[in-house]
Write a structure and sequence with these properties.
448 residues, membrane
């Protein structure tokens, strides 16, 4: 503080000297504005300090009472972001309600927002009140389990984020599992992202309830610069631990980049963090498995170039290689590309002893436009892949369908014939005329 004061005094002396000589440079004009700005903030602080001292002899409301909500006018003043208007609203409310500033700052809205939540989108208001807010209120959560840091990060308010970070707990998550970093990445706020990852790299690896880490969200934005900020962030050796265990932290960002056809992002991830390409999806499939499934030939070539051994890596579920996946999906171009890695198709068996030659006939027929026969499900005990083996209950389903159709046909026939032979007016139910049509002798029933 002494250094800052002395610096301001020095700059002030220069500005005073320039005023005497009649010359004022642009830099000295900035100093003059800065000095005026400092004085304005000192005045604002004195006004707020007066509201703290105002609690002596005044009635104190218990903020824990459920019926004590923030005044709508005060809450709106915080949301609008004008710092002087907000301080004036605080002064008026303290006088009118006979409460002090700490009491007001502890009140909640019906959605459990504090005034700090409401003001988190304003750098100036956060700067004005941060020193008067209790530490517990800086990290308190609203009904959506959001802290003020979540709101400031989402809005891209770097000034508010910088003030909230020391006590703001960036690892806190909201009701959807998102941290403040998730929010900043989704909304592409570069400066806020830099601050958050510099303060704590742990949220980089935290997945939300959609199993998405900030890296995955960066891929979804399509913004390479956002992804670069995350890839270049310090991580305290966490990359090494993750690469050794190959543990998936939710959805893999490499798989997402393949799905969204973001080759530029794949190149960035390979350049900065190649261990990400070792991560597998929920089905234990590698990025090459997924690329073979999606039929993106240029991504297949990219992955084979960078990780040629991945072409011979099986998944953990069925022992499938990427070429098996390509065969299953009838992606002929991908099969041709993968065959360059090992030209003998018989060398690619899966756990049930089949290889890609078992798929050859189907691929030829599909390529020729021949439709698949629906009767194969009844005639053959197995489908095209081991995952679709037909058990006896499958045959029972066809029997049930046949029985159901027979019953429906019988009902339709009975209703049809009943309507044809029905007599208008019905039959007489009395003893003497039982069984005779009621309208037998009525002229209106005689045919013309």
């Amino acid at each position: 503080m002494a250094f800052v004061d002395s610096g301001l005094r020095f700059l002030g002396q220069r500005a005073f000297h320039s005023k005497l000589t009649g010359r004022l440079t642009h830099g000295e004009m900035d100093v003059k504005v800065s000095i005026n700005d400092q004085e304005i903030w000192k005045q604002r602080r004195r006004r707020l300090e007066a509201l703290i001292r105002a609690d002596r002899g005044q009635r104190q409301h218990d903020p824990a009472q459920p019926d004590k909500f923030i005044s709508p006018l005060l809450y709106q003043a915080a949301k609008e972001g004008g710092v002087d208007k907000f301080i004036k609203a605080l002064e008026d409310h303290c006088v009118m309600e006979e409460v002090s500033l700490p009491i007001l700052l502890g009140l909640r809205s019906p959605a459990k927002n504090t005034l700090l939540h409401a003001a988190a989108e304003s750098d100036d208001i956060v700067r004005a009140v941060i020193d008067f807010v209790h530490e517990n209120l800086i990290t308190c959560k609203n009904s959506r389990r959001e802290t003020p840091l979540h709101i400031a990060a989402r809005a891209g308010k770097s000034g508010a984020v910088e003030l909230l970070l020391p006590q703001g707990k960036p690892r806190c998550i909201d009701h959807t599992g998102n941290s403040a970093l998730h929010e900043a990445v989704r909304n592409r706020h570069y400066e806020v992202i830099r601050m958050l990852v510099s303060e704590d790299p742990n949220p980089l690896y935290r997945q939300n309830k959609e199993s998405k880490s900030p890296w995955c969200i960066a891929v979804e934005t399509g913004d390479v610069e956002v992804l670069k900020l995350l890839l270049e962030a310090p991580n305290d050796g966490e990359d090494q631990r993750r690469s050794e265990s190959q543990r998936v932290f939710g959805m893999s960002p490499v798989h997402l980049a393949i799905m969204y056809q973001k080759t530029d992002m794949l190149r960035e991830m390979w350049k900065k963090k190649p261990w990400l390409f070792l991560l597998k999806d929920a089905g234990s499939g590698t990025p090459l498995h997924f690329t073979a499934y999606t039929n993106y030939l240029d991504r297949v070539k990219f992955l084979i170039e960078k990780l040629p051994t991945s072409a011979l890596e099986q998944d953990n579920k069925d022992g499938y290689l990427p070429i098996h996946v390509a065969c299953t999906m009838n992606h002929v171009r991908i099969v041709k590309e993968l065959l360059w890695q090992w030209p003998d198709p018989a060398e690619f068996p899966v756990r049930l002893g089949q290889n890609i030659l078992h798929r050859l006939t189907r691929i030829i027929l599909v390529s020729a436009g021949i439709p698949r026969s629906g009767e194969l499900a009844i005639c053959k005990p197995t489908g095209w892949s081991p995952r679709k083996r037909l058990e006896p209950p499958e045959l029972d389903r066809y029997k049930d369908q046949a029985n159901t159709r027979t019953v429906v046909a019988a009902l339709v026939a009975s209703v049809t014939f009943t309507s044809v032979f029905s007599v208008r007016g019905g039959f007489n139910g009395s003893d003497l005329d039982a069984g005779f049509p009621i309208l037998l002798h009525k002229p209106c029933t005689k045919s013309s």
